[in-house]
Amino acid sequence: MVGAVYDRESGDVLAFTNVTLLHNTDSSLVAGGTTTLEGSFSFDAPPGEYLLKISFIGYRDYFQRVNVVEGKPLRLGDLEVRPDAQALAVVEVQALQSSFRNDIDKRVFNVENSITAAGGTAIDVLETLPSIQIDEEGSVTMRGSGQVLIYINGRPTNMSGDDSESILAQFPASSIKDIELITNPSSRYDAAGVGGIINIILKKDEKRGFNGQTNLSVGTRHKYTTGVNLNYGTGKFNFFGTYNFQYRERFRNQETFRESFDGLSSRFLDLRMNSTNTDRSHLARGGFDVQLSESITFGTYLQANIQNGSRDRLYNQLFRSVEETTDSLIVRYMIEDAFEVNYEGGMTFDWDLREKGKIMASASLAIEDEDEVEYYDQFLYNSNISETPQERLLQTFDTPSLDYLIQAQIDYTRSLSENLGLEIGVKSTTSLETRSQILTESASVDAEGTVNQFVSDSVGFDQYINAAYFILAGKVNRFGYQAGLRGEHTMNEINTYDESTAISNDYFNLFPSAYITYDLTERSKLLVNYSRRINRPRIWDLSPLLNIQDPTNQRTGNPNLRPEFTDSYELGYSREAVGYFFTGTLYHRRTTDLITRIFVPQENNVNVMIRENAAIDLSTGLELINQFEFSNWFDATLTGNLFHSQIKGETQGRDYDNSNFTWNVSLLSNFKVGRIGTFQMQGNYRGPMVRPQGIIKPMYGINMGFRKNILRRKGTISFNVTDVFDTREFIVSIADPTFTQDRRFKWESRVATISFTYNFGSFNRRGDQDVPGGNGMMDDGF
Fold first, then answer.
1. Residue 635 above 80 pLDDT?
2. Rounded CA separation 757/779 (Å)
3. DSSP letter, residue 196
4. What is the DSSP track for 71-99?
5. Does an H or E element contain 444, and which?
6. How confident is the model at residue 765 (pLDDT cuts 50, 70, 90)?
7. Collapsed DSSP state (helix, strand, coil) of residue 122
8. Core vs surface per residue 531-563: b (16+ CB within 10 A) or e
9. Whole-prediction pTM value?
10. Given this model, what pLDDT does residue 768 score?
């Protein structure tokens, strides 16, 4: 039995509404539940004639007679309930909707009403969620693991795939509906992403009639966002479209202090870097869904993203001797222009075969074309801080890239019996990536540039992954179970165009997963699960091309990297009570051939960061989530993650074993004050984390925001300040026999933003017409 509940006057969905099925004779309870955040409900019932009841505070009870036929799904469609004018005259409904729900294999956060992230990007939204952190290079970590897979609407994305930050920055917070954190994915998901999967669900209305939402936000230091979401729904068709524009300026500072003991470099390096980034982006997405028949639905979408960015950066690098006298000073200016276009299109096909199951097919193509050009002007000063004109260096660093991502997938699900279900599927993924870089150098503005052959080259990386999986899921008394197995065949090849590197791989792996739940009571359960996953090296992990943006801290990949494998185990407990929800998870991850970053000293004050396979990474932790609803105007979610990490192995001819115990704490609270509005506060603390050569120091911050509904609840105005006390900064401390280094990264984290959204449109009303399916609708006052 499936359906959805709407407010008859406004057309809004009604989340967390009680839906119950009663016996006709004595009104005793047969089955029931509550609606989801989308207003939908679904539950099973034995064959027979019943009375359906829908009840929610501030609304008149709704009744409808229904007839459940064995083997025939009962689709009730959209059910509309009327506000109770008498009740609303006495009490104002102020209950705060829960932003979190816990499923068997994931946690789902509704973020469309997030106040503290309003006016920001997907990065700002993620930073408000428990167990999520962003490191100094924009990479996402979850439960301390950085190997996290980013999905958009359930599909992996290749958009600016070199780092997570450039993927997430393309999506404004206003375009996101839900975020799913899948900490231990089952066999239905790609085996990649040893740290889990973050699935970002974009908004797409399916309301009837023409409706939409427009938004505008303004932030301090020139941060602007505007956009519109449109939808038109009929009986069989649903058209949707969205457009968002962002203009954002953001500064970033870096300080590095290094002491070298190898005699190859100056004893001390003191580096200061200041940078200002300017980004402009246009994101347009549109498509339609059509119900070809009662059982067949077809959908398609197109998406385009255009980004134009620039960056101004200044490096001051002071080198000092062991006596702490000046050896030299390098001043390096950099201007960068970047242009990127990304196009993506896809199709979906769903075929409901009734008792024979359901077929779901999808295909998508994404193309990304990007070009970044960096201009450098470098001056060298001697020990007397006098310029040496003959050492002036001008450089042009051009780094174009072109990526293709093609995916096709077919899934089939079927109920084998009342308590047993089967799911099988196949998927093919083709990824074609090209990276080039051309470094041109000259000694003066008038001199002709020459190409640096040592740095200039191109690299191509082609990867083909074919996968198949099956899952059996069912329930026996109080036990629920899900067992799956996924097989993935991987073929890839990386080669440089000067043919100095050409390496291919061909391997097949099996990835089992298992989940067991046990209902202790109606409101509490135990969960045990296991999965095995893989992290394949990406193009920049493998590419031998040398990144020379910072001459004293260069980076390169390693074509000989092997994939890392992780076995993940979880033991969880959850309990619900009136006004309270608790879940605790004890987890353990064991990763072999860990891909990690190593700093290797070179001559002339240069450190090169390379990637190598470490031996083992062990992580054991306890995550606790407490959700309190103290009243209908105050709730809070408190999350704690305590874990022990250990990394051990051998690299550069030396053994290492580095470990520590750390913790993360996050608090999100909402206060609704009568007709004034809703206040939100979010704070987090992340303890120290280990790396093979050192430690990442603790970091914390607090965000605050306010939201008020205006214009008869069709408009919303909000104000927020992120990192109120300006405390968020990323500090990495490295200790090695040949050098010690402290690096501090400080980005613009304290931003004040004011935002406005407005909902508009009309809805087709059925009034007292019958509900589709021929069951008939009784008057609300039955």
1. yes
2. 35
3. -
4. TB--EEEEEEE-B-HHHHHH----PPPP-
5. none
6. very low
7. helix
8. bbbbbbbbbbbbbbbbbbbbbbbbbbbbbebeb
9. 0.77
10. 32
